[in-house]
């Protein structure tokens, strides 16, 4: 699908330096939109729609927030910029941050188009959760054009492969959502590599890739059985 | 082994209400000691000895420290006391804390004797790490009396069953030790139930018991292979 890609107005502190692009089909009628595929979901499930935008486009800062200086959250497509541009345009002096903070920011970095594509993929997956609303025909056609036919109730936890229900998205444990956006290979932020997962599965996977994690399980079980 | 159990002087804020007990054999010569089995290790590996005392006797507060009021660390044998005693003797008003904080404190609770026994068990395990010092004969005999013969290099990660080396105890990742004290069944703080584990293994196990965790792995691998 060819997209409009005209610049969309945005009020964020970063938008001056980042043209947000219209993701509607080329030659569309009506006004340009950055997240046309989320318009419908944001009416029925505003928190899930907001989570998709946040997970797709923003770094998470919690891990370094408490102990060391450094920005808490920023767009992933800002986190990808060179040190001198971050200093000049955003007044963020990466050199002054502890190395661990710099690494944490950098490992969340992704380009703008990948972030938008991740948001599209997560929306496609969200509509295939158990209990998800049926998408309207614009949204269905748009998302299927990118990722293929949607099958109701077919979205599993990326890690443990159990079906995920839309209700899980409103469950919290100690302020953490029960479902997180997971990466099959850590730090690779693109549509192919992302999915939803139980928080505890995502925590368990840790820094391993999904393949490494399954291999680790096999090895552990082998050793346990030898005892 | 019958123990002396005379009250040992201690300077902590809690010791007024908690008789710390001498753990030397009954009828011992010399002065009374609460951790006689750690005297030798605290000379060669003071940080490991301190970690054993800390993990065996103290709650960890990190999880609730940042977001919500409540004490950061306290002895596990204080955390086990009734609300009214905590208020009267330690000026800690549990009722005023959020429920999540109260639960976090209570799930670390253990009685004094169990804490001491956990410290003994961890010391016994520490001497069986790859690269551990050979215990002097007092320490060896004392610990083997409780937990049986020690075998050099036989302490494995409680979870993944790989051998642990003493060097791992000085490795850090983002300020967290690479080795943690793990509980086969979460929240059961006694000698039988504790061991050392890689931090990432302990994080992966999460709230599951070790048996539940292995079963979960089996089920996940089965589902992955069916795909
Ligand atoms: Zn447009
Ligand atoms: Zn899962
Ligand atoms: Zn004594
Ligand atoms: Zn391990």
UniProtKB/TrEMBL annotation, chains A, B:
> Quick one: signal sequence residues?
none
Name used for this protein in its record: DraIII
- Disulfide bridge partners, by residue number: 4-22, 4-32, 22-32, 157-160, 160-201
Look up the coiled coil feature and give its residue ranges: none
Please give the superkingdom of this protein's source. Answer: Bacteria
**What organism is the protein native to?**
Deinococcus radiophilus
InterPro entries recorded for this chain? DraIII-like (IPR048434)
